[in-house]
Amino acid sequence: MQGYSPCRMSLSRLSYWEEAEVKRQIDVLVDLGKMKPSDSKYACRVTLPVKRDGSRRFCGDYQPFNLQTQHDSFPMPLVDDVIS
Q1: Would 84 be classed as within a structural domain?
Q2: Kind and range of the H or E run holding 61
Q3: Which of 2, 6, 51, 61 has the fewest CB atoms nearer than 10 Å to its CB?
Q4: 3-class DSSP assignment, residue 47
Q5: What region, left, alpha or beta, does residue 33 occupy, with left being phi > 0 and alpha being psi -120 to 50 degrees?
């Protein structure tokens, strides 16, 4: 992505309980090998929306990254045209 500066968002304030939940979920993801420590120039905020069962879902807010994305000006080809 030439010409773009790295997008680094400031942290949003979380309550003590939300911080503990974020740390717990990060530890689980690191233990499972789904996440690893990084020193990247890119960073996003973490949100914790409530799921239907009352637990919290760990999500990243990628809106600033999406603003830097260059969109394709042509539609995706139809599957039938690609296969046949």
Answers
A1: no
A2: strand 59-61
A3: 2
A4: strand
A5: left
Q: Which two tokens stand for residue 55?
A: 């637990």
Q: For the chain, how many structural domains are there in total?
A: 1
Residue-range definition of the domain harbouring residue 14 = 1-36+43-68
pTM, full prediction: 0.64
**In what helix (H) or strand (E) does residue 46 lie, and over which residues does it extend?**
strand 45-47
**Per-residue pLDDT tens over the stretch 33-76:** 999 988 888 888 888 899 999 999 989 888 888 887 777 778 88
Q: Tokens 């997008």 — which residue?
A: 7
State the pLDDT at residue 53. Answer: 96
Tally the C-alpha atoms within 13 A of residue 50's C-alpha that lie toward its C-beta: 3
**What is the reported pLDDT for 46?**
87
Q: Quick one: pLDDT at residue 4? A: 65
- Residue 72's region, left for phi above 0, alpha for psi from -120 to 50, else beta, is beta
